[in-house]
Design a protein that fits this description.
This protein has 16 helices and 14 strands. The protein is of the alpha/beta class. The chain has a six-stranded parallel β-sheet, sandwiched between helices. A six-stranded parallel β-sheet has the order 11-10-9-12-13-14. The chain has a two-stranded parallel ribbon with strand order 7-8. Strand 9, helix 13 and strand 10 form a beta-alpha-beta unit. The relative contact order is 0.09. It binds uridine-5'-diphosphate-xylopyranose. Uridine-5'-diphosphate-xylopyranose binds next to helix 9.
Amino acid sequence: MKICVIGAGYVGLVTAAGLADFGNSVICVDKDKSKISDLKKGRMPFFEPGLYELIRRNIKHLSFSFDLVDSLKSCEVLMIAVGTPAGKDGNPDMKSFWTVARIVAHDLKISPIEEKIIIIKSTVLPGTNEKLRKYLKRATGRTDFHIVSSPEILSQGSALKNFFYPNFILIGTDSQKAAKIYTSLFKNSKIKKNKIIFTSPATAELIKYAANTFLALKISFINELSSPAELIGADISEIGRVIGMDPRIGSEFLKAGAGFGGSCLPKDTKALLRFSARKRVPLYVLGSVISANERQKQVVVKKISGRLGGLIGKKIAVWGLAFKPQTDDVRDAPSIDIINALVKKGAQVRAYDPRALKKAKAVLPNSIKFSHSSYGALKNADVLVIITEWDEFKNPDYDKMKKLMRRPIIIDGRNALNPKTAKKAGFEYEGIGRK
Ligand code: UDX
């Protein structure tokens, strides 16, 4: 069984390499020629722990190409894993998806292979499976293909762990044959059978949005609660940890901070909100999740401004630009909005991130200075702001910091430091939802 994975982004590349690791023969296709030529030379298009080694290990079963038309010819199973970034109106931009669909239609028209299986991995709005089925039928005159909605639940930074030890694998299809063949791709894996969940396509499509928006809801809830916690001198980290001990609540995603970012949570919350509004079934809770997240970034800006007595001319050191640790991705990262707001209010920013400097430079204003070391960013700073909780920030050399900074002030936007240690070292410390 030969598989064509279309799209060499986080989802596509991890899926392609993972399926190859189970002994399947996989070709991963991307229209970006430089990305493909890099992959062929063993260079990674982005940072994801363990992915380079996984690809290297499976290079016998895994090839790369930018020629989709040619690659599709020999494949029985194809997986669409192209990006569906947020469009200007908040809906996912489906351009790449439908471009691929047109090429798949062309392939179906000429292919002698019967009953090809088309798996949708990209995050797409509910109803896309049905729309694709109708389109392919109309465009090709064929009906002997199967479509599966199998949205991916990979988290950046731990994508390999998520792939090999998934909480669940979603197989959303009305076709028994497709379900059977898809399941067979995992036959050499250690994934337990009960982790493979069969649903209708529509249910699978909505599960993906339900999962991501629920995670966003948990974060916005704990972030909002951090304000009353501060007011009464309570500790939000303790609150999150203790309520999380109740399995009905669950301990994950209850860390208060500078807001959620990344390529999924912000985009998917907005997309589901718009989708439901269009269908005249408004989701009131979700609207609040989004506005609470926008507000949370401003909470950090206000804390900085409050401590410094205004921002004009103030020198601000920022530790952490990636939307979370273990990735170089800055898409919708809280750091971007926070830094833009600081600069707009007259502050000077010098930032450091262990992985995301290059990507951040491409989206931040030219006036931002970047440092190649965490301590380098602190020179003459009036305040240090932590926006991403990289491990290397967690036990800093406070004496060294004090010598470098103009004023010993820390705004910890991720509650990454131990407040007691920071204060004992002579710092003014302010976290989120705790003193
Ligand atoms: C998310 C989902 O977790 C994953 O299942 C889905 O397939 C894709 O989207 P990802 O975008 O990689 O994964 O990041 P995630 O780990 O969910 O973090 C998103 C944001 O929430 C980050 O900015 C992170 O810092 C923030 N976050 C997370 C919090 O602020 N508090 C938390 O407790 C957890």
